TrEMBL record:
This is NADPH:quinone oxidoreductase. NCBIfam families: quinone_pig3. Keywords: NADP, Oxidoreductase. One of its GO terms (molecular function) is NADPH binding.
Length: 331
């Protein structure tokens, strides 16, 4: 095993390259990639807006599924041939990738490689932001609370709806007209058409669905101009968690309203977290969410699978917003 094929970024585009196959160091494994999930962060990286963290591979790809091809020094819990999914800081767009053992997830029985590849980033993002890890609760969602998931049909949103419902929360979600039924089927009690309703009307719908109270948590993948409206949608003591900037990187909010609601705003990202924090997130995901996956209560939606060479087409699907769930590449 001397060479591996990757998709590297060159002049804001992807191109195939052949490089030496990486070797696992202490506490790492080499994965023969069977499937790689596509995320909006990959699009941002190709466009030059979201570089890899220091020490991470320079080419995109934040999650994969495959089999272990080699183990590094000190690795005893994993073995050659084990099926795994992995959360990565980069490097998933290729035929092989090295991953720390703390960021590996066993693949539950009955899950395809494509489905498994769509899980690590979404499960880790949703758990660490909707619930929280250790003494950093962030969203702090609890059973019996109400959560608003913006973009409930996307790769992250579709998992967020299912996770929140599985944890006993009441879910309100937004989606486009064609995807309303799909999001409802995932477990959302109320689904609001964000294409046909203005932001102010969505806020009114949220208020009506909560008897005027508002929601305990908003999971916001949009950012930008949605900031002020999302504060309007919060209940007293509510938490707004911003995990994306699809609507822009800047927004305004009324600080007095935030104070009067005793609300909080959190902005977080998963990719730049230290390896130890990611390992803690993955540990919680395996303990608390994988049993729901194994039981079928949480299931990744795979909109399409494409060969690695058609990664740009996969990226365009995300840009156009046509995907319900995730798009996955097959090396």
């Amino acid at each position: 095993m001397t060479d591996t094929t990757i998709l590297e970024v060159h002049d804001a585009a992807l191109r195939a390259a052949t490089v030496p196959t990486p070797q696992p160091g202490p506490g790492e494994v080499l994965i023969a990639v069977a499937a790689a999930g596509v995320n909006r962060a990959d699009l941002m990286q190709v466009a030059g807006h979201y570089p890899s963290p220091p020490g991470a591979p320079a080419h995109p790809g934040l999650e994969v599924a495959g089999t272990i091809a080699a183990v590094g020094e000190g690795v005893t819990a994993w073995h050659d041939g084990d099926r795994v999914a992995a959360l990565l800081a980069g490097g998933g767009y290729g035929t092989h990738v090295v991953a720390p053992v703390g960021q590996l997830l066993p693949i539950p029985e009955g899950l395809s490689d494509a489905e498994a590849a769509a899980l690590p980033e979404a499960l880790a993002t949703v758990w660490s932001n909707l619930v929280g890890v250790g003494d950093r609760p962030v969203g702090g969602l609890r059973a019996g609370e109400t959560v608003l998931v913006l973009g409930g049909a996307g790769g992250i949103g579709s998992i967020a709806v299912q996770v929140a419902a599985a944890l006993g929360a009441r879910v309100i979600a937004t989606a486009s007209t064609a995807k309303l039924d799909a999001v409802r089927d995932l477990g959302a009690a109320v689904v609001i058409d964000h294409r046909e309703r203005t932001p102010g009307e969505v806020t009114a719908d949220v208020r009506e669905a909560t008897d005027g109270r508002g929601v305990d948590v908003v999971l916001d993948v949009l950012g930008g101009g949605a900031l002020a409206e999302n504060v309007h949608r919060l209940a007293s003591g509510g938490r707004l968690v911003v995990i994306g900037t699809q609507a822009g990187r800047r927004g305004e909010l009324d600080l007095l309203e935030l104070m009067q609601r005793r609300a909080s705003v959190h902005g977080t990202t998963l990719r730049a977290r230290p390896a130890a924090e990611k390992a803690a997130v993955v540990h919680d995901v395996v303990a608390h969410l994988l049993p729901h996956v194994a039981a079928g209560r949480i299931r990744p939606l795979v909109h399409a699978t494409l060969p690695l060479a058609r990664a740009e087409e996969a990226h365009q699907m995300l840009r156009d917003g046509v995907a319900t769930g995730s798009v996955v590449l097959l090396p």
